[in-house]
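User: Predict the complex.
Assistant: Input components as received:
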Amino acid sequence: GQNIDQPTEMTATEGAIVQINCTYQTSGFNGLFWYQQHAGEAPTFLSYNVLDGLEEKGRFSSFLSRSKGYSYLLLKELQMKDSASYLCAVLDSNYQLIWGAGTKLIIKP
Amino acid sequence: GAVVSQHPSWVICKSGTSVKIECRSLDFQATTMFWYRQFPKQSLMLMATSNEGSKATYEQGVEKDKFLINHASLTLSTLTVTSAHPEDSSFYICSARPGQEFYEQYFGPGTRLTVT
């Protein structure tokens, strides 16, 4: 079966750095997405990785290792507004998005 | 950027009635649209995939006669929840793919459905 694992909840301090991990086992791989979702709102796109390595985009970076079936989202200089759920999703061989359950990130002052 | 709208943003209906939710791509043509459902504290669950002019493909366990999907044009897809029951109360989100770039997918703001 297809499976995506990420921690259920994480807590971090404002101004700090947090890394949210995602491991996946899917039938085929056509890229991995990270989305941010605030409560009661639709997901918003953060990043897309299809090749190994680190992609940096401002305070957010995303890393992918296809051989390990592993990705992480790195958030720097955390702000209170970063409190949200972060969803990892993989595009499988049928170009269908397989979603993780999401990681709820709580930022404390 | 690509914008997807949904209407209504929230709706309350009585058990047994039907509700229609619209999903529109405002500034691009969507060859494919997706409908998701999300229960509280859970991730998105894909309900169905629809391509303009053809029948929707439903995921396993999703009743196609209960959740009617129509993708009549390249900018509009509708989801009708027929004979709604309280267990259908959920957050319904659509997304749209503009072309053959499979990594592109833009989400609507979601529709909160409450069935009383």
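Chain A touches chain B at residues 30-31, 33, 40-45, 48, 50, 87, 91, 95-97, 99-102 (CB under 8 Å).
Let me know if you want any component modeled separately.
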